Amino acid sequence: MKQMERKEILKRLTLKIKAGKPVIAGGAGLGIVAKMQETAGIDMIMAYNTGPYRMDGVPSFVGHMPYGNCNRVTLELVDILANRLTDTPVIAGAGAGDPFLDIPYHIETLCRRGASGITNVPTVGGKKAGALKGPVRDDMEWNGFGFKREAEMIRYCRKRDIFSVAYAFDEEQVRTLVQAGTDIIAPHVGGTAGGMTGFEAVSVEEAADKIQRMYMAAVQENPDIIVLCHGGPLKDAKTVEECMKLTDIHGFIGTSALERIPVENELTKIVSAFKATHLR
């Protein structure tokens, strides 16, 4: 695949936005998903440990549980995706909360393996991030392995001129991550609704209101920041377009919406069509 420098990715995305076109990024937990997304012209492929879990038919939050090493899962996924794509940047997740992780070494390793950028997944930013809430989250923050460490990772990326995408759950987190130097801020409004393993979500209007508030916090820190929405009721093109009409955002990052739900829907239709055939 073609590994891209930060300035090249930014140039591509900025040109799209200036042309009035949304930036669309998609999660891929399998090589075939990434190939089809690239064929359709997606702007970025998000590679992080929740993807393989989704493709295994379980909810994304399982990726926040202690059932596997998130950073090892992502390294393996980057190896797969980097060899399936030709002209689409792979943005790799990194679990900064791992107390045994050497952040600079790990980021450089991801880039050597084919990643063109880094994002903070799994993140402890959300109040409902699987097991990482309540006392567990408090203990991580107290011991220095919480959200501040994610900001440190984004700061390192900017220092090294490595492209970065950062998920945030409220205005304070937005300001922290934009100040750290992220190129894209992604207001996260919860687990994605819809499909077999979807989450309960607020209305599009409620999500848009929260996203716009985070957008305003972001542009106050950096007028040139790119803002992409994610999660909650934003499960398909219709709901995303509704959100874009209610906000000033620049596009969308879809994981379940651009891998899990399409696979569920299309396979159901195709298998049903085969079942409806008749013998001679």
UniProtKB/TrEMBL annotation:
Q: Which domain of life is it from?
A: Bacteria
Among InterPro entries, the record links this protein to:
Aldolase_TIM, Pyrv/PenolPyrv_kinase-like_dom, TIM-br_IGPS-like, Tobamovirus_resist_UPF0261
A Pfam family (short name) is PEP_hydrolase
All residue ranges annotated as the TIM-barrel domain in the record: 8-276
Q: Which GO molecular function entries does the Swiss-Prot or TrEMBL record give?
A: catalytic activity
Record protein name field: TIM-barrel signal transduction protein
From which organism does this entry originate? Answer: [Clostridium] hylemonae DSM 15053
For this protein's source organism, the top of the classification is:
Bacteria, Bacillati, Bacillota, Clostridia, Lachnospirales
